[in-house]
Amino acid sequence: AIFNPAVALSLDISAAPDYFAGWSFCWIVFELLGAAMAAALFRIIRSEEFGRSDCDGVVAIGSDFEPDMAVRCLAEFLGTFIIVFTLCVSVVLA
Fold first, then answer.
1. Integer Cα distance of 34 and 27 in angstroms
2. What is the tens place of the pLDDT at every residue in 41-84?
3. What are the angstrom distances between the C-alpha of 94 and each of 16, 31, 49, 83, 91?
4. Among 13, 24, 27, 76, which is most buried by a count of CB atoms within 10 Å?
């Protein structure tokens, strides 16, 4: 699996003489969409982290911050699901 757009582009270009298909650009778009979705999911699941600020308006997350067990379990489930789903799709489509 390639998670870095620079790696996807370099692999596509390095195969340029024989196999360059230009798929890296499509791959990069989906990588960026996936990153945006992951950030949005993190923002939704861990929303309590984004409302706290100090007197200057800077978000301050101190060592006293501890999310609920349900939030931690949901984050763990989603992360594991996405990794396993990506692996299964890669194996099935390969």
1. 10
2. 888 887 777 665 555 555 555 556 677 888 888 888 888 888 88
3. 21, 18, 39, 16, 5
4. 24
